[in-house]
Write a structure and sequence with these properties.
The protein has two domains: about 1-40, no CATH class; about 45-160, no CATH class. Helix content is about 65%, strand content about 10%. The protein has helices at about 1-15, 20-40, 45-80, 100-110, 130-135, 140-160, and strands at about 90-95, 115-120, 125-130. It has a three-stranded antiparallel β-sheet with strand order 1-3-2.
Length: about 160
């Protein structure tokens, strides 16, 4: 976080001089201290974020691929006069433990065209799909495996904090 704050300082200044670097280091250190002291931030959380970064990048990449695939499906449904969409409600349970992972799954489903997460209660998901074809594999989606890996890293990190 400190490096990020200092980098933003340098970018916003537009040039690098000794005075700008010293002042940036002081301001970045003060902001970092404030964030750690009053906002519950810690070095352990920063390390955890770095450990999660490869999984988050992979998750984002898979999300983009799934959005493009679903867009093609929806486009085919819209442009083909022979195909009639068959809407469906899908109910499934997940093994996710953290609220963050559950919300990320629900949001990822909603971001994918043709599907909307209608409700999320504890581990129970209700998803509306524009067509039965879009509903296939929702309960075993590629997002679940990555979210479970992310949860393992998060829970392992929380165990190390204690």
């Amino acid at each position: 976080m400190f490096i990020l704050l200092f980098s933003v300082w340098l970018i916003l200044n537009g040039r690098i001089t000794g005075e700008i670097c010293i002042l940036g280091l002081l301001i970045s250190a003060a902001l970092f201290y404030f964030i750690c002291r009053f906002m519950g931030y810690s070095r352990q959380k920063e390390i955890m974020i770095f450990r999660l970064m490869p999984l988050l990048v992979q998750y984002f990449w898979i999300l983009v691929k799934e959005i493009v695939k679903a867009n093609m499906c929806v486009l085919r449904l819209i442009t083909s006069p022979d195909l009639q969409p068959e809407p469906a409600l899908i109910y499934f349970d997940s093994e996710l433990k953290t609220g963050l992972a559950k919300v990320m799954l629900a949001d990822s489903i909603t971001l994918t065209p043709g599907t909307i997460t209608v409700s999320l209660e504890e581990n129970h998901f209700c998803v509306h799909c524009l067509d039965k074809e879009l509903a296939e594999g929702v309960e075993e989606s590629v997002f679940l495996e990555l979210l479970e890996k992310m949860e393992a890293v998060l829970l392992k990190g929380k165990g190390a904090e204690r």
